[in-house]
Amino acid sequence: MKPVNQKAWLLILPVIVCVAFSAILPLMTVVNYSVQDIISPERRVFVGTEWFKSVMRDDDLQGALLRQIGFSLSVLLVEIPLGILLALSMPASGWKASAVLVLVAISLLIPWNVVGTIWQIYGRADIGLLGASLARLGFDYSYTGNATHAWLTVLLMDVWHWTPLVALLCYAGLRAIPDAYYQAASIDGASKLAVFRFIQLPKLRGVLMIAVLLRFMDSFMIYTEPFVLTGGGPGNATTFLSQYLTQKAVGQFDLGPAAAFSLIYFLIILLLCFILYNWMQRVGTADKEPGHG
Amino acid sequence: MDERRWKKRSVFLLLYLVFAILPVYWMVNMSFKTNEEILSLFSFWPRDFTWDNYRVIFTDASWYSGYINSMIYVAINTVISLLVALPAAYAFSRYRFLGDKHVFFWLLTNRMTPPAVFLLPFFQLYTTLGLMDTHLAVALAHLVFNVPLAVWILEGFMSGIPREIDETAYIDGYSFPRFFLTIFIPLIKAGVGVAAFFCFMFSWVELLMARTLTSVNAKPIVAVMTRTVSASGMDWGVLAAAGVLTIVPGAIVIWFVRHYIAKGFAMGRV
């Protein structure tokens, strides 16, 4: 058991100051916007919770929210298993491990607007490799014309872009498992699947927690990549929440409703992350050996 | 049996690497083509090989200063993130105190603010402070998402180090700062490497805040790249060359921290 020490607050004080400076002040400003009708910088009217009510009733927003939840769930369902699988198949040591690490990490290092631009060309049927290959195989593929294709392309782009994050975290987690565990398992004659289920997966719980939370919140706020690739279209097939929000805030200069919207947006992410966090902690402690932690 | 299993894994790995590399290859391929060739011809390699796109970037100050600006604020951000996160992660991994679990989760909630509307308050805040268009402004703004992540990652590494080590050091008469700097930090070098890589990466690729808080003097490369749209349409070749060059610094960083990642970390508490 860790000792109680209130002086530990002094150690975390710098973090709180740094984060609060750039988080709480802007958050308060947004709260301030959300209860006013801002006609011009000089003319503001207090409107109370009116914007919150109208935002909650907005049909377009509900559509965007549903699309968003569907997208984020798909992202998690594809990227987490794929990332674990990738981490399991990466070599453990030697020059091959270094080379694979660098190759896998490359997509993470590309600025987000460039990611969108690459896929914009890559998916074109006339000059892009992906589009041309699909066209050659006989698919009538067009991410600008067909809503399903557009959605799948955004998903594929996200899988390409972010699976390495899950893989790197899991890889680091796997390397930390002492050999003694594997030796014990092989003496018991455990199958590969049993080793994964009872040794590797429990040991990966911590890193998977970070991976799931990061992927969830980042995919929930995805903006730049689909904006560059599809511009939210065709129709509104790939207009996710943050894009809808930007249309409102920047396009229509509706600062009040946009602020109310982003607060609700923030609370949704917060709530879902909180549920995920607690659920993963409970699942983890259920099969954790006693006396640990 | 094991042999076959190993083969299946290598095949999967190879397939994934192909999937991962092809879009990047396509960008590299484009960066050596002229704009006419990019838009008119489907080809696996440049027919009309040219260095012109790279020449544009290396001779035009508005392009290459973008890289320098990005590197400056990313470096400032990574250093500040690690400096404040190290003691905090130590506190979280070693002690219980009032509200520890809440603060730990609250830190992460700061990554969850949708940027679109929060950009305006950021703009106002940094204008009021007179920090607009400085590297420091972007570095400070990026702390919002990097510090929480650094704390979470470092806390995981630190929880893997037995507490007996701290206690022995105190009995031997080490003061806290001396113990922390000379004994503890070397023990979690791997964690510092991994955290530094993630801070570097997230700060390097972030576009919206960096673009909002800068105009000329500190304009980052990601923002410079958004203006390749000109009267004659997109300048795809230069954009691709710039994209290829954005990968280089990160690839160097990951090359240096690869051993730390390969060394692994088990998250103790979380």
Q: What fraction, in percent, of the residue positions of chain A are helical?
A: over 70%
CATH class of chain B: Mainly Alpha
**Major sheet attributes of chain B:** 2 strands, antiparallel
Spatial shape of chain B: globular
For this structure, the CATH topology of chain A is MetI-like fold
How much is the radius of gyration of chain B in Å?
23 Å
Order of helices and strands of chain B: HHHHHHHHHHHHEEH
Total strands of chain B: 2
Give the tally of β-strands of chain A.
Answer: 2
Largest sheet of chain A: 2 strands, antiparallel
Characterize this entry briefly.
Chain A is mainly alpha-helical. Helix content of chain A is 72%, strand content 3%.
Task: Describe, in plain words, how this protein is organized in 3D.
- The complex is a heterodimer of chains A (293) and B (270).
- In chain A, a hairpin with a 2-residue loop joins β1 and β2 (43-46).
- Chain A has one domain (68-286): MetI-like (MetI-like fold, Orthogonal Bundle).
- Chain A has helices at residues 8-34, 50-56, 59-89, 95-105, 112-122, 129-136, 147-175, 179-187, 192-203, 205-220, 224-229, 241-251, 255-286; strands at residues 36-40, 43-46.
- Chain A has 293 residues and is mostly helical.
- In chain A, 42% of the residues are buried.
- In chain A, α1 packs antiparallel against α13, α2 crosses α13 (255-286) and α3 (59-89) crosses α7.
- The longest helix of chain A is centred in the last third of the chain and has 32 residues, at 255-286.
- Chain A is 72% helix and 3% strand.
- The termini of chain A are close together.
- A two-stranded antiparallel sheet of chain A has the order 1-2.
- With 270 residues, chain B is mainly α.
- Chain B has a single domain (61-263), classed as MetI-like (MetI-like fold, Orthogonal Bundle).
- Chain B has helices at 2-31, 35-40, 52-59, 61-94, 100-109, 115-128, 135-159, 164-171, 176-187, 189-205, 208-212, 221-224, 236-263, and strands at 229-230, 233-234.
- A two-stranded antiparallel ribbon of chain B has the order 1-2.
- In chain B, α4 packs across α10 (189-205).
- Classes of the chains: A mainly alpha (293), B mainly alpha (270).
- At the A-B interface, α1, α3, α4, α5 and α6 of A face α1, α2, α4, α5 and α6 of B.
